[in-house]
Amino acid sequence: MSKKSILNKKSINFLEQYLNNASPTGYEWTGQKIWMDYLKPYVDEFITDTYGTAVGVINPKAKYKVVIEGHADEISWYVNYITDNGLIHVIRNGGSDHMIAPSKIVNIHTKKGIVKGVFGWPAIHTRSKEKEESPKIENITIDVGAKDKAEVENMGVHVGCVITYPDEFHILNGDKFVCRALDNRMGGFMIAEVARLLHENKKKLPFGLYVTNSVQEEIGLRGAEMITQRIKPNVAIVTDVTHDTTTPMIDKKKEGHLELGKGPVVAYAPAVQQKLRDLITDTAEKNKIEFQRSACSRATGTDTDAFAYSNGGVASALISLPLRYMHTTVEMVHRDDVENVIKLIYESLLNIKDGETFSYFDK
After folding, report:
1. Which of 128, 177, 190, 216 is most buried (CB neighbours < 10 A)?
2. 44, 214 in Cβ contact below 8 A?
3. How many domains does the chain have?
4. Residue 81: which CATH number?
5. Do 18 and 158 belong together in one domain?
6. Residues 345 and 232 in one domain
């Protein structure tokens, strides 16, 4: 691969459209359609499942199967309770952060269309200086400008409506991508770019490649659990985001030292198959792709865990994208890291042999 940028104008336009579209957990299908439309020229066929996971397949007749995977869903809220005076209390759909909610504009998704609202918060003048109360799930509410519960319901809002933030994609300082839901639609974007590069560079793989955009990761890796049983892969390379620990208030002694612009992060964890991980790090060194290392404890907390422990054991590895401000509306990644994750997955695929077991007991 050359050192020039691998992202073209079409790539960035797709990324912007894909990120700006809402894709809350359990409601990922419109984003999946955007993703599949972009991927269509680069794959032979698609697999979809009941809950919305989408898979683009290259060489579908091959017996040996390799997955590259990201997840499509974003954190959100549900309408949980509407007060008599028309304020809306919420519960989480995924790991939504109550601390960032006050003063945020929201989109409430109804059968009548989007209803706009705001997370209100008491004015600073009215709050006690001696006993300042912090935002918490019990005291944040959404105001849609209605006078009472009946007016809210007439707008089409009811208990169970899903709520997302409308914050859209932009670029800071020429090379920092900023948006809500970079976690982890960046993963779906990056694996789609791998498929594009394989097609454009006319690379023929000796195995079936399953470019997998899973749903429902944010509530427990559920989409990956389902689709791995459908695909029954031999190998899975998962990509997700991880914390840039140079962000203020993060303890490096606990989280390790990981930084934007320093390259992809290769995980060390029980679920990560060591020989597959070594293939990835050897590939990075051979191709002079800068990378970082991260040690996980019992679990990676990503879809890697779902793939690794499925189907009697699947050789799995995790390549993460450093990110600042996770689960906020201003998540941030470095363009260079995005390109290097794509390059590392691409080059690693070219080094996987048909039928390779990665077993320590092979002669």
Report:
1. 190
2. no
3. 2
4. 2.40.30.40
5. no
6. yes
Amino acid at 272: V
If one compares 4 and 220, the residue with the highest pLDDT of the two is 220
Last residue of a domain, one of 131, 164, 197: 164
- Whether residues 160 and 277 fall in one domain: no
Q: What is the pLDDT of residue 4?
A: 80
Same domain, 300 and 185: yes
Question: Rounded to whole angstroms, how far apart are CA atoms 189 and 39?
Answer: 10
Question: Which residues make beta-bridge pairs with 321?
Answer: 241
Same domain as 335, residue 258: yes
Task: Check whether residue 203 and residue 314 sit in a common domain.
Answer: yes
> Does a structural domain hold residue 213?
yes
pLDDT in tens, 252-264: 999 999 999 999 9
